[in-house]
Amino acid sequence: MRQMSKYYLNYLDQLESEAIHIMREVAGQFERPALLFSGGKDSITLVRLAEKAFRPGKFPFPLVHIDTGHNFPEALAYRDNLVKELDEKLIVRYVGDTIQRQKLTEPKGKFASRNALQTYTLLETIEEFKFDACIGGARRDEEKARAKERIFSVRDEFGQWDPKRQRPELWNTYNGKIHKGENVRAFPISNWTELDVWNYIKKENISLPSIYFAHERECVVTADNQLVAVSDFIQIDKADTVVKKQVRYRTVGDMTCTAAVESSASNIDDVIKEIIVSKISERGETRIDDQVSEAAMEDRKKGGYF
Amino acid sequence: MDILRFITAGSVDDGKSTLIGRLLYDSKSILIDQMAAIEKQSKNKENGEIDLAILTDGLRAEREQGITIDVAYKYFSTDKRKFIIADAPGHIQYTRNMVTGSSNADLSVILIDARKGVIEQTRRHSIITSLLGIKHVVVAINKMDLVEFSEARYNEIVKDYKSIQKQLGLADVIFIPISALSGDNIVDRSGNMNWYKGESLLHILENVKLNSDVNLFDVRFPVQYVIRPQTEELHDYRGYAGKLSSGIIRKGDKVIVEPAGIRTAIKAIEIGGKEVEEAFAPQSIVVHLDDDVDVSRGDMIVKEDSKPKITQDLEVILCWMDTKPMEVGSKYMIQHNTKQVRCVVKEIDYKLNVNTLEKETGIQSAQLNDVCKVLLKTASPLAIDSYKALRNNGGAILIDETSYVTVGACIIN
Ligand SMILES: Nc1nc2c(ncn2[C@@H]2O[C@H](COP(=O)(O)OP(=O)(O)O)[C@@H](O)[C@H]2O)c(=O)[nH]1
C-alpha cells in the first residue's frame, strides 16, 4: 500500500472537500438558497469554498447580510470590496428598518446589542425572498448546543430549531425535503474548529478585514476586564476607564458586543501562534452576550437565531 | 496530519462522558472559560468535585434528565491527528442515535465497566459497529481502579469479549485497561498497571492506520450539480460537480454514466477551478465528458472494470428511526447518495435481535429502533453496491413522503 500514499488527503483538504460537497448539496436540493454573510472570517471562508464549489459558474445563491447598523467600518468596506471582486449579488437588510417596521424595542443599557434582533430581520428577509435554505458559517466546536446540530438543520416557519425533533443524519446523505414555509440552515464548516479556519485562511492566502490583526484602538474596559471599542454605539460614562491598546479581534460581530483581545499579532502566522497558546475559547473571550446564562445560545437558537 | 472520526459506545454510567472529558482535558482542548462553566455547574451537584462528564452533556433537556439523548460532536487535535468524536447514547431506545453516530465513524471505542464485565449492551454496541462497517474497534475496559487494577479481571473480560469478536468477525480489535476518572492509560501508560504491555488510548487513536480504508479501486462518482455558466466566453462549458466517493479517475478514462449505461470518456477534471490529470476519493471535483450526453443530478459515473449493480430490487438491513411504525406495503422516498426515488416495502424477511443476533420471522411491521432485513422495490433503478464491499455506495436513507422526516437507514446487502 506504500505507493498509494500520494492518494491521501491532508486534514484541511478533507474538511474542504466535505464543505464543498455540502454546498453543492444545497445547490442541488433547493430552489432558492442564500449564503448568510456577516463579514467575519467564517463567512469569508464560506465564500472561498463557494468559489471552489461553483466556479467558473456564478454562485447559485446571493450573499445576504443582516446588518445591525453597528458594524465595524472595516468589515463593511471589506464586504463591499469582496462583492465587487466576486461579481456576485449582495442583499443587505437592516435591523434598524425591522425595528421601525415591527415597532420592536431597542435594547437599552451600556453595551446594548442588536444581536438578538437580527433574528427578526433574518426571518423577514427569508420571507421576502422566499429563501428555502440559508448557508451559515456556524461550527460545532463553538458552543455546546451547536455540538448537536445537524449539517442540514430544519427550522419551522418561525425559524425555530427544535433539538428534540432533529432528523437523523447519516453518512454524507443530507435530507433537504421541507414543507412550504419551512427552511433549512446548512452548515458546511460544522466540523471545523477555530484553528482549522485560521489554518485554511493561511493555506488559501485569504485576505481578511484589518481588524483581525493587531492595531491601536481606544477601548472601554468592562467590569469583566474585557475591551470594547469606543464607538457611537456604546454609552461611555465618566466612571469608565478608556484605554488605548494594541488589539485584534477573533470574531467580527457588532461593535457593541464583540470584545477585542490585546495582541501584537500583525500577520496570520502570529495570530495562529497566539490562538494555539490561548487558553480562552473564542466565544468566551469575544462575545459579551454569551455569558449571561449557561443556556443562552440554546434559547436563541430555539428562537430562530443563526 | 489526517482526521480520525470515532464513536464512543457504552451503557449508562460506564464512564463515556468522563472518558471524552478526560481526552479533551488531557489534550488541552478544554479552555479556561469552558472549565469555569463546568466548575460552576459541578458546584450545583452534591459532591462538589469537578465533573468532566458535563463537558459532553449539551442540551438542557438532557441536563435535566441527566442523560445524553442525541449525538453530540466533539473535537480535539494533537500533533498527529484531528479527532472528531461522535458521542452517542448507548441505551436500547437510542439505537438509532448510535447508528447515526456510527455511520461516519472510522473507529469505535466500546466501553466496558470492569466490575460488570461484558453485558448485553456490549454485545449490541458491537453488533451495530459491525453492521455499520466500522473497521477498527478499541475495547476499553474502564474503572480498573475499582477492581484493584487486577490483571486477572482484565483477562477474564478480554476472553469474554473475544467470543463476541469471533461471532461478528470483527477483524481489528484492540483491548486496553483504563481508568477514565483518574486518567490511567489515557494519554500515558499507567504505573498502576505495569502488566499491560500495550500503548495508551490516545497513542492507539493517533496511530490507527486509516489511509488503506479509502477505496481507490472502484470508481463511484455521484453527480451533485451541473455547472453551466452560459456566458459568452464559457458558452459550451458543462461541468459535472460532485465528490468522488471511491476510486481514482484520470483524464481520458473510459466511463459509464449509470443508471442509463451511457458510454463516454473523461475529457477534463478540475479541482477548485484548476485542471488536473487525475483525482481520487474523497476529493470534490468537476468532471467534463467527451460527448454531449444527458447527465444530471442523481446520475453516477463509474468505470467498466468495476460496475455497480443497477437494480430496482434492494435487499437491505434497515434500522427504523421513526415513532410511526413501518409496515409491509408502505411507500417512502429513498435517497441514495444524490439520487431520490420512490420505493415500497415488499417484504420484511426478519427482525434482528440486536442483543443476540437471533432472527425473528413472521414480522409485519417495524417499530422505532428495530433492525430488520427488508426487501424494497424502487420506482426507477439505482446504481448500488453492497455496504460491506463499498461503504460509501451501500448506504441509503428512507424519507417519509408526507412528513419528510428521515425514518430509516438502509445498509444494502
Ligand atoms: N472509579 C471510577 N469511576 C469512574 C470512572 N469513569 C467514570 N466513573 C464514574 O462513573 C460515573 C458515570 O460516569 P459517566 O462518565 O457520567 O458515564 P456515562 O453515562 O457513560 O457517560 C460517574 O460518577 C463517574 O465519575 C473510572 O475510571 N473510575
Structural write-up:
- The complex is a heterodimer of chains A (about 300) and B (about 425).
- Chain A has about 300 residues and is α/β, with parallel strands linked by helices.
- Chain A has two domains: about 10-195 and about 295-300, HUPs (Rossmann fold), CATH 3.40.50; about 210-290, no CATH class.
- Chain A has helices spanning about 10-30, 40-55, 75-85, 95-100, 120-130, 195-205, 270-275, 280-285, 295-300; strands at about 35, 65, 90-95, 135, 150-155, 185, 215-220, 225-230, 240-250, 260.
- In chain A, the strands form two sheets. In chain A, strands 3-2-1-4-6-5 form a six-stranded mixed sheet, sandwiched between helices. Chain A has a four-stranded antiparallel sheet with strand order 8-7-9-10, with no helix packed on it.
- In chain A, α1 packs across α2 and α6 runs antiparallel to α7 (about 270-275).
- The model of chain A is unreliable at about 290-300 (pLDDT under 50).
- Chain B has about 425 residues and is α+β, with helices and mostly antiparallel strands.
- Chain B has three domains: about 5-205, Rossmann fold (3-Layer(aba) Sandwich), CATH 3.40.50.300; about 220-305, Beta Barrel (Elongation Factor Tu (Ef-tu), domain 3), CATH 2.40.30; about 310-410, Translation factors (Elongation Factor Tu (Ef-tu), domain 3, Beta Barrel), CATH 2.40.30.10.
- Helices cover about 20% and strands about 35% of the residues of chain B.
- In chain B, strands 7, 8, 9, 11, 12, 13, 15 and 16 form an eight-stranded antiparallel sheet that branches. In chain B, strands 2-3-1-4-5-6 form a six-stranded mixed sheet, with helices on both faces. A six-stranded antiparallel β-barrel of chain B has the order 17-23-20-19-24-25.
- At the A-B interface, α1, α2 and α8 of A face α2, β2, β3, α4 and β9 of B.
- The complex binds guanosine-5'-diphosphate (GDP).
- Guanosine-5'-diphosphate binds near residues 12, 13, 16, 143 and 181 of chain B.
